[in-house]
Design goal:
With 391 residues, the chain is mainly beta. The chain has a single domain (39-388), classed as 6 Propeller (Neuraminidase), CATH 2.120.10.30. It contains one helix and 26 strands. It is globular.
Length: 391
């Protein structure tokens, strides 16, 4: 997005067949693994391509119903594709162009961005998307709810509109947190002077109900969506072990940060950046002084990986937009957090490092029902599966 690209991606599963050569049962054969991919992983982990020829995949998610269906957003086409049993369905699940035909085609970092399933999806079949589109009076951001009816979208309903948005610094991801509310990250739309205005939505985290209403217990009152302020261009959100809200924010010329966000907190942009001594603003838990471009966040809750990975929080670093490896970006890192509250200490360690020759930038991660991790790569238009098999 302008000097940093912020976008997101997706993927799907792989099939095994057991066989025997005589009347005595034998162990299932172990299928071959493509260990030639330039993705550096810990011992015992492997990766493979499970989807390709996608057009700028951004967010990817599996629905919370145990099905082997991977939903993938494409940024500039406005399509959501479903990969079922390793195959892409013939028709897109959803096409944003059906509702905004005058906004397409376009290029750049606007388009279909975030994707989130309702916690009670098995009963209501709801999922939520975020998107930013150009219009006659400039760009605007939106949140909409869709119903899944047998792998086709229905009941498209905008629940928030006219959100600040400008080519990359825009509406980003939306997430349900344990309190049952939706939390939305919104960039500053290149209007930093608006970020400290509590009545504006620039550079904020917004909090609202499943229908887009303002909760009565919001920190700035029952008529204000704002949950926290002072951000430049935060992308994804996740919750910690104790339900705390965690997120990363993209700084100006480096100074990317990892933060814990308390209700009503002010994180200082544009008056404070990185580690600072101003008591009026919340301090980050971690600062990358050089640009790493943090995007997707995910807490691993599966059991396929060794036990030390259960509960691990994973942060995607999109990295710089250039050919070849990035010494600090283009990777997935494990967030190691000790202590609680805003005084917790945080460090990062590499889990998956992309070392492709050309443009290869991971943007989002999702966890499949098989316990594998799925990673979308925006420029390659691919989804990778990372799985554990042991040595």
């Amino acid at each position: 997005m302008k000097n940093k690209l912020h976008v997101v991606i997706s993927c799907f599963l792989f099939l095994l067949f057991a066989c025997t050569t005589d009347s005595e049962p034998e162990d299932d054969p172990i299928p071959p693994v493509d260990d030639e991919l330039p993705i550096v992983l810990p011992d015992g982990f492997f990766s493979e391509v499970i989807a390709s020829q996608l057009d700028g995949p951004t967010s990817i998610e599996f629905p919370p119903d145990g099905s082997n269906r991977l939903f993938v957003n494409e940024l500039t086409t406005g399509h959501i594709w479903i990969f079922e049993d390793g195959e892409r369905l013939e028709e897109p699940f959803f096409n944003l162009q059906d509702f905004y035909p005058d906004s397409f085609p376009f290029s750049g970092s606007r388009g279909l961005i975030g994707l989130e399933f309702h916690p009670d999806y098995q009963n209501n079949r709801w999922l939520y998307i975020t998107y930013a589109l150009p219009g006659e009076e400039g760009e605007s951001g939106y949140v909409a709810r869709i119903t899944d009816e047998n792998n086709r979208s229905a009941d498209f309903t905008e629940i928030l509109s006219d959100l600040p948005s400008e080519q990359g610094h825009q509406v980003q991801n939306v997430r349900f947190l344990p309190d049952g509310m939706l939390y939305l990250s919104v960039g500053d739309a290149y209007r930093p002077e608006m970020v400290q205005e509590v009545s504006a939505k620039h550079g904020k985290v917004l909090r609202f109900t499943e229908s887009g209403d303002i909760p009565a217990d919001n920190p700035f009152g029952g008529d204000n969506y704002v949950y926290a302020l002072g951000f430049r261009n935060a992308f994804d959100l996740a919750f910690g072990d104790n339900g705390e809200l965690l997120m990363s924010d993209n700084g100006d010329v480096g100074m990317d940060t990892f933060r814990q966000v308390e209700p009503g907190s002010n994180h200082g942009w544009p008056f404070a950046e990185g580690f600072h001594g101003n008591p009026d603003y919340s301090k980050p838990l971690y600062v990358w002084e050089d640009a790493v471009v943090p995007t997707g966040l995910h807490r691993y809750l599966g059991n396929q990986f060794p036990s030390q990975y259960h509960g691990a929080l994973l942060q995607v670093l999109f990295g710089v937009v250039s050919d070849g490896p990035d010494p600090i970006g283009k990777r997935i890192q494990i967030v190691e957090k000790e202590g609680s509250g805003v005084n917790a200490s945080v460090s990062f360690s590499d889990f998956a490092v992309f070392e492709f020759d050309g443009k290869a930038n991971p943007i989002d991660i999702a966890e499949g029902p098989d316990g594998s991790l799925y990673v979308s790569d925006y420029f390659q238009g691919k989804i990778f599966r990372i799985f554990y098999r042991g040595n």
